[in-house]
Design goal:
single chain; 8-stranded parallel beta barrel; alpha/beta
């Protein structure tokens, strides 16, 4: 999916919501455990209930790898179900890969060829040769970790060099030599507030994948105020707040209601910005 198609979906759906499919078999409704594949059954219902309100889905690979072969099969079925039934959805593999070049090339083959994801989260720590193999696929995206929303983000990401440039700023500046706003996005946590302005000064045109609203306490209003550009430039993820909005037989309906609520707030911000 190219940038133009992604922007068109945002305008058409009046949404820049990504639903994070971080499906924990220990948290899904108990009545699903009798199914042959409880995780896929849960995912399928969530997808059907939320697809009208979002433009992307983001399975976190850890939640599937923890189930061994069965978990990988659930993931594969989930991806194929989205591709077959909701082909306009942008698919993000939240895998945070990144290794020496030949290893990264194998990761790229896995997620872009074998599993047909649109994008992959990548860790930048090992530098250019660990990232560029992912950029060799036309129509696919690297989503590079820049400034995250976890508790320990400040341990390294805010470290300054002798020129007072913070590490996340260096990641943004240097990585733009490897790719462009047509094939590279950045992960920026929703809890970062006004720091979005610093990020936009360096990367004004790139999409930002923003986790951290909902259960992590990030403010969608702040994300839009400081991080939205003239065409939106945001994909905002919500996982637990949508997935586990209900835990009984009506879990999917409650997930859909939560996704609809987030979409309505997003539509308001898109309208205020004059994008829709």
């Amino acid at each position: 999916m190219n940038k133009g198609e992604l922007l068109m979906n945002i305008k058409r759906k009046k949404s820049f919501l990504c639903v994070g499919l971080d499906t924990d078999i220990k948290k899904i409704p108990q009545h699903l455990l009798k199914e042959d594949d409880p995780v896929f059954t849960f995912n399928k219902a969530i997808i059907d209930a939320t697809a009208n309100y979002c433009i992307a889905y983001k399975p976190n690979l850890a939640f599937y790898e923890s189930g061994g072969l069965k978990g990988w099969m659930s993931l594969e079925k989930t991806v194929k179900y989205i591709r077959s039934n909701y082909p306009d959805q942008f698919l993000i593999a939240d895998a945070k890969r990144g290794d020496i070049g030949n290893t990264s090339a194998m990761y790229a083959r896995t997620f872009f060829e074998e599993m047909d994801f649109d994008s992959l989260t990548v860790a930048p720590y090992m530098g250019e040769d660990s990232v560029t193999p992912f950029l060799n696929y036309e129509g696919k995206w690297v989503i590079l970790l820049a400034l995250t929303s976890n508790k320990g983000f400040c341990d390294f990401q805010l470290t300054e060099d002798s020129k007072k440039e913070r590490l996340f700023e260096k990641v943004l500046r240097v990585s733009q030599k490897w790719g462009s706003d047509e094939n590279m996005m950045y992960v920026v946590g929703a809890t970062q507030g006004k720091i979005f302005e610093d990020i936009r000064n360096i990367a004004p045109d790139h999409f930002l994948l923003v986790p951290g609203i909902g259960a992590q306490g990030g403010s969608l209003e702040d994300v839009c105020r400081y991080g939205m550009n003239d065409v939106c430039g945001l994909i905002v993820n919500s996982s637990r707040a949508i997935l586990y909005a209900g835990n009984m037989e009506d879990y999917a309906a409650k997930a859909g209601k939560e996704a609809h609520s987030v979409r309505e707030e997003m539509a308001y911000h898109l309208s205020i910005k004059g994008i829709i």
